[in-house]
Amino acid sequence: MLGDLTSDFIAAPFMRRLNALVGLSDDDKSAILDSLTDARTARPRADLLRADDVIDGLSVVLEGFACRYKLLPDGRRQIVAFLVPGDFCDLRVLVVERADHAVAALAPTTTASITRDRLLSLVNTRPRLSRALWWSTLVEDAILREWLVNVGQRAAIERVSHLLCELYLRLEAVGLAADGRLELPVTQSELGDALGLSTVHINRTLRELRGQGLLETNGKSYFIRDLARLARVGIFSPDYLRVGRDLLEPRPDRY
Amino acid sequence: MLGDLTSDFIAAPFMRRLNALVGLSDDDKSAILDSLTDARTARPRADLLRADDVIDGLSVVLEGFACRYKLLPDGRRQIVAFLVPGDFCDLRVLVVERADHAVAALAPTTTASITRDRLLSLVNTRPRLSRALWWSTLVEDAILREWLVNVGQRAAIERVSHLLCELYLRLEAVGLAADGRLELPVTQSELGDALGLSTVHINRTLRELRGQGLLETNGKSYFIRDLARLARVGIFSPDYLRVGRDLLEPRPDRY
DNA sequence: CGTCTTGTTGACGGTGCTCAATGAATGTGG
DNA sequence: CCACATTCATTGAGCACCGTCAACAAGACG
Fold first, then answer.
1. End residue of a domain, out of A121, A144, A167
2. Which residue is nearest to nucleotide D18 (CA to C1')?
3. How does the average pLDDT of chain A come out, rounded?
4. Which stretches make up the HTH crp-type domain (chains A, B) (predicted)?
């Protein structure tokens, strides 16, 4: 285990994520926290996991920013997910031995791991934890479906707006964004690879959003001036981020 | 249970799918087959499951063709998956109570169900079955990621070719396609909604593929004249359809 | 036998891509 | 600490891919 790390500030986003998992007891939470081992920090552009790698355990992002991606033989790249602190790298390790896609750090990224055996024994002895882990894969799936809708149906300005709304809410949920401000340690080229748009067009689209007074950017700092309006432009509804929660649960009325 | 249905020809694709699931015993197979109940046939365009529906059990497609889809408020539709015989409608029922997307029949489609309680007791008493079900959700995820790559990175002719290769292999795997021939009971408009292309452009792309001698179409019958070449055009590699199988397993050399 | 859906094709235009150049920022090695 | 290289953001020009609109034919269906 990581010793002091479990009580350390660095695990805060992961803690917040665990708290959000339905029905997880304090006992479950400390069981999984205590199983974290082997913390390491990857530099930007470093692969955390390569396609066809044999997976030997479950990794959790504690700090930083990463992505899943697939490459075509000619070099085109599609980013299929962004991983923010608190996200799991490869939950499918429970069933599958090899990855079908790669995971790369986009910013300096700290991860910690749980060995496969430890994880299997956790889910076997703690049904609620097992359920919670499955639940978080379902949220991931829901995000993936929404990304397909985004890339398949929305125009460029809608895609960018939608992604910004999603990332703002996800980062806010783990305490890494507030008051419309968020840090996105990704290049415009990476945004393009996630949204199926060219770098040049990402740049022009961001300029358009700034021109409409919806957004301010300064390097990798983003400031959403009007979340409700940005959500309208992006035809964004946050429901998919809360799969399985009671749909009638009161929600902030910002969209 | 469905009585005669379990031994009936109609369950053949589902049987073939079960046989393909890793490590499933005959006992497991008959347990799940015997749990099938409440067979019903939906007409084309009928919803099998609506967004926000409370899910009361697991449905299996026995015959026909269906899709998962999400709608935007203005009517745009993205099809996020095709369901062929042997596919499950809503495996997430195990964890989540409500659907975040809809499922619709595209052809006359027969489904059978397993009640939630029965399913839960099956997975609790049969670890291999539980593992096999999770495995099939992972294959679904892999297909979803590949669709995102398809829509995000590939040009129209590549997208159509890729989808045709995928559907041919999936249908062949359950005995519904052979010798390059397959039936796709979908309209060109539905292909467009799956690939993020307009109906008109689907039509032109199919014409182009016919012109290149790669494909023949006759209504909803498709004949792939040269699978290897179509796969090359679509930059198609079948790996993602076999997530978790040994990557060294010998494969037909058709791509 | 009308009506509706689907497939097909043409014309036209726009969204977004490619190519190219520039400057700023960042990183690296001497 | 500076010289140099590389990455990244930004903008312009030109054009291609694909969408929209429109029309018509052929089935499918009641």
1. A144
2. B201
3. 90
4. 154-228
